[in-house]
Design goal:
- The protein is α+β, with helices and mostly antiparallel strands.
- The chain folds into four domains: 111 residues, 2-Layer Sandwich (Beta-Lactamase), CATH 3.30.450.20; 164 residues, Reverse transcriptase/Diguanylate cyclase domain (Alpha-Beta Plaits); 238 residues, EAL domain (TIM Barrel); 109 residues, Thrombin, subunit H (Beta Barrel), CATH 2.40.10.
- 38% of the residues lie in helices and 27% in strands.
- It is built from 23 helices and 33 strands.
- Strands 14-15-17-18-19-20-21-22 form an eight-stranded mixed beta barrel. The protein has a six-stranded antiparallel beta sheet with strand order 2-1-6-5-4-3. Strands 24-25-26-30-29-28 form a six-stranded antiparallel beta barrel.
- The chain is globular, with a radius of gyration of 37 Å.
Length: 720
């Protein structure tokens, strides 16, 4: 037995002095040895501990038989083939792993290892051992023991995990996410590696708690956690920071195209209806995104950047994602100023309604107008609805604006021909107000307009209330005799479920499908066809929005569209222009516009850097699209020249000159830009601040000579 082997060397070392002892002493030593061996054997048999030994080559030479029926088959194998350290519990700082200790013949003290029994159950042992040295000083393997600590270790590990996990959702908690982010940033910083974080919170969660109770709210959070796990998979860590706040950490991800797509999937997934105690609940979410090291290389700065992006996403209308940018701080202050001005806009008559025709595709005759709000600020000029409507919703000003729009639109349209309808957009905030139906009734009675001519356009977000209240509001509106249209149809996951119960008269096909419907290898045309077919089957009308070019018109006509809106026929116009056309009987709008749709170009006036062969030029970008830009201020650039356009903030775009005229060039980007979540464009990747600083320093010291001529552009400061 191993026990006898442990004492064998000692017996050999007994010298002549021991040989001279009396027979009684020999018998006493033998008795002590036998008693010790018996004691160790009893410990072994009782399962209190088991013993092990390896030979000089590292193979197992002894294992206590009580360890299991597989023990004999492990003889000769390395110890690490039988046991292993806990992968979820790495050694503490300064501690050596088991493989290192064995290879360096180090002492092993109470190391926790994992052992799988024959029935598949896992046991945990505290392993101890020390190297055995032969009389000639050579290594003779290990001698050691282990004791079962499964109960104690499991309890300690569970307690430790409880301190790192959220008890409700089983996601990581704030403490664990803080430690994880600190660890990643510290490890990644020297190599300039990237790490992205997503901050999100839930829209309308408080409403679920207030109407369905806290148990339903807890179940909702558990279901949200499950959806986040499916969306993120094993790409990153997910944590619940508290309340309805969540965070996602994505190491080594800085592609803003991928991040935007992931954020969109999260928003769409979380926004699907939930079944809670037999009732349906609909919430939403907004996402703020920041990427280290570009937006911060410490946890505090990076989280603050993501929080600011989340705030911007929520203020942008909710259900959106935003990337952090340095302009967001100025944007927050700007929104506060606009909110104050908006409160006075109604009383100062700065708001007005414009009307965009709805055209019957068969004969190009107008069948209705959609009322669209416009704000002409006395100092800032025209402010886009995409800017001031979200501000109005955040401050509840949208209720007053909505009431004004309903009254004004009905008053404007009362004298139109009886077969010309009026469409008015309704904010989800306005729809949720208890007096909304009364407001609609008052607008109709006050103007004298027939209810059948009024069409209220709603989006899916009106369903972010309990279904009974929504159904009651629908029934009351239909009782008035007005028509209901579901706007932006096809952009959410849940539209089909709403059609089963909501009494809509019309579906409006979202312009996002029309934009690419004429392009090759696009599914947009198929989606348009499917929506039109669905509406026909349900006996509903459809209006296709956003038709701006003849190739788009041909596609939607071929797919069976009957009504459409878009700049190809007419933009929104003031009421005076509408009345003039109606008075003259000019109800036919002939299409006028481009033959083919081009990717949307944004008119800009923005300073950019142009880099060519280590020389940097200053220029002005006037137009920007996903695939290219128009740049002023550089003359003598041949077509085909490769340039790098510096958009700022580490955004460098490799470009090819495709047009050149005087001091103006048109460039095509090697990699298309991606959405920044706010209607703008950005590069998918950015150059890290360290690399950018090094490149700038190298360019500054370079003696490269310019090959092109910088031409001053009005409004652009000369290089000094």
């Amino acid at each position: 037995m191993l026990v006898r082997g442990l004492f064998k060397g000692r017996e050999r070392q007994e010298g002549g002095a021991a040989a001279k002892t009396a027979t009684a002493v020999k018998r006493g030593t033998g008795l002590a040895t036998e008693n010790c061996a018996q004691l160790l054997s009893e410990i072994e048999q009782a399962g209190i501990a088991w013993f092990w030994a390896t030979d000089e080559a590292g193979g197992i030479s002894y294992l206590s038989p009580t360890i299991g029926e597989r023990a004999p088959s492990w003889l000769g194998k390395p110890l690490t083939a039988v046991i292993e350290a806990d992968p979820d519990d790495p050694p503490e700082d300064g501690a050596r792993p088991l493989t290192f200790l064995l290879s360096s013949h180090g002492r092993i003290d109470e190391m926790i290892v994992r052992f799988s029994e024959s029935d598949g159950k896992v046991r945990w042992w505290a392993l101890s051992g020390q190297p055995h040295w032969q009389s000639d000083g050579s290594f003779g393997g290990y001698r050691g023991m282990a004791r079962d600590v499964t109960a104690q270790y499991t309890r300690r590990r569970d307690d430790s995990r409880a301190a790192e996990f959220d008890s409700l959702t089983r996601l990581f908690n704030r403490h664990r996410m803080t430690q994880r982010l600190d660890s990643i940033l510290s490890a990644f910083r020297p190599a300039g590696r990237c790490c992205s974080i997503l901050m999100l919170d839930l829209d309308k969660f408080k409403h679920v708690n207030d109407t369905l109770g806290h148990p339903a709210g807890d179940e909702l959070l558990r279901q949200v956690a499950d959806r986040l796990r499916k969306a993120i998979g094993d790409r990153g860590d997910i944590g619940r920071l508290g309340g309805d706040e969540f965070q996602v950490i994505l190491p080594d991800v800085d592609d803003r195209g991928r991040l935007g797509e992931l954020a969109s999937r999260i928003i769409q997934s979380v926004s699907q209806p939930y079944s809670l105690e037999g009732k349906r609940a609909v919430i939403g979410t907004s996402v703020g995104i920041a990427v280290a090291p570009h937006d911060g290389d410490t946890r505090e700065v990076l989280v603050a950047s993501a929080d600011l992006a989340l705030y911007a996403a929520k203020n942008g209308g909710r259900g959106q994602f935003r990337f952090f940018s340095s302009e967001l701080k100025d944007e927050a202050q700007e929104r506060t100023l606009l909110a104050n001005d908006l409160r006075e806009a109604l009383s100062r008559d700065e708001l007005e309604l414009h009307y965009q025709p709805v055209i019957r595709i068969a004969d190009n005759v107008v069948v209705g107008f959609e009322a669209l709000m416009r704000w002409n600020h006395p100092e800032r000029g025209p402010i886009a609805p995409s800017v001031f409507i979200p501000i109005a919703e955040e401050t509840n000003l949208v209720v007053a604006l909505g009431e004004w729009a309903l009254r004004k639109a009905c008053s404007d349209a009362v004298n139109w021909p009886e077969d010309v309808r009026l469409a008015v957009n309704v904010s989800p905030v306005q729809f949720a107000m208890p007096g909304f139906v009364t407001t609609v009734a008052a607008a109709l009675s006050g103007s004298g307009m027939a209810a059948a001519r009024l069409e209220l356009e709603l989006t899916e977000t009106v369903f972010m209330r309990d279904s009974e209240t929504v159904d009651m509001t629908f029934a009351a509106l239909k009782g008035l005799g007005v028509r209901l249209a579901l706007d932006d149809f096809g952009t959410g996951y849940s539209s089909l479920s709403y059609l089963r119960s909501a009494p809509f008269d019309k579906l409006k096909v979202d312009r996002s499908f029309v934009e690419n419907c004429a392009a090759r290898d696009q599914n947009s045309a198929k989606i348009i066809s499917a929506i039109l077919g669905l509406a026909d089957a349900l006996g509903m009308e459809t209006t296709v929005e956003g038709v701006e070019a003849f190739d788009q018109l041909e596609v939607v006509r071929e797919k069976g569209a009957r009504l459409l809106q878009g700049h190809l026929f007419a933009q929104a116009m003031p009421i005076a222009d509408v009345e003039a056309r109606l008075a003259s009987g000019a109800l036919c709008f002939e299409p006028q516009g481009p033959v083919r749709h081009r990717p949307e170009r944004r008119t800009v006036f923005r300073r950019v850097g142009i880099i060519h062969e280590d020389y940097r030029y200053e220029a002005v970008m006037r137009d920007l699209s996903r695939t290219g830009a128009r740049i002023d201020g550089l003359a003598g650039v041949p077509v085909g020249t490769i340039l790098v356009v510096d958009l700022g903030g580490g955004q460098l775009v490799v470009s090819t000159v495709v047009r050149a005229s005087d001091a103006q060039i048109g460039v095509e980007f090697e990699t298309p830009l991606t959405s920044d979540g706010a209607g703008g464009l950005c590069t998918r990747w950015r150059v890290s601040p360290l690399r950018l600083a090094a490149a700038t320093a190298a360019a500054s010291s370079s003696r490269a000579t310019p090959q092109f001529v910088e031409v001053a552009v009005p409004g652009m400061r000369e290089r000094g």
